[in-house]
Amino acid sequence: MAAALIAPAAAAGCVASWLAAGSTVEVEPVLDGEPATVSVVYSPPLVVLSLVLATVAGVAAVLAISQLARRRRR
């Protein structure tokens, strides 16, 4: 039963950390007279946290589904 609660919580945390990981920065032009461009820079710790939470959510979802299937067989 705990896996069914952990999976959506970890998935929500994954999405939240991924959305918080990116920030935009202005990049200087390569040549004089060219306009500056905007790029997205990601925070490595938040990206790693997002990947770990995605893994936890996936494993918890598989465990919850297998527990549900096992209960229905009985």
Distance between the termini: 16 Å
The helix content is: 55-70%
Strand order of the largest sheet: 1-2
- Low-pLDDT residue intervals, each spanning 5 or more residues: none
Give average pLDDT, whole number: 95
Count of individual beta strands: 2
Main β-sheet description: 2 strands, antiparallel
As for the number of domains, it is 1
CA-based shape = rod-shaped
SSE pattern:
HEEH
In terms of quaternary structure, the protein is single chain
Compute the gyration radius: what is it? 20 Å
Class from secondary-structure proportions? alpha+beta
Number of helices: 2
Percent of residues in β-strands: 15-25%
Question: What is the element layout, followed by pairings?
Answer:
Elements: H1 2-21, E1 22-27, E2 37-42, H2 44-73
Antiparallel strand pairs: 1-2
Helix pairs in contact: 1-2
Domain MHYT: 38-74
Organism: Mycolicibacterium hassiacum (strain DSM 44199 / CIP 105218 / JCM 12690 / 3849) (Mycobacterium hassiacum)
Transmembrane segments: 46-65
Give me a quick take on this structure.
By secondary structure, the protein is an alpha+beta fold. It contains two helices and two strands; from the N terminus they run αββα.
Task: Outline the structure in words.
This protein is α+β, with helices and mostly antiparallel strands. The chain has one domain. Helix content is 68%, strand content 16%. A two-stranded antiparallel sheet has the order 1-2. α1 packs antiparallel against α2 (44-73). The mean pLDDT is 95.
List its salient traits:
74 residues, alpha+beta, two-stranded antiparallel ribbon, 2 helices, 16% strand, rod-shaped, signal, transmembrane
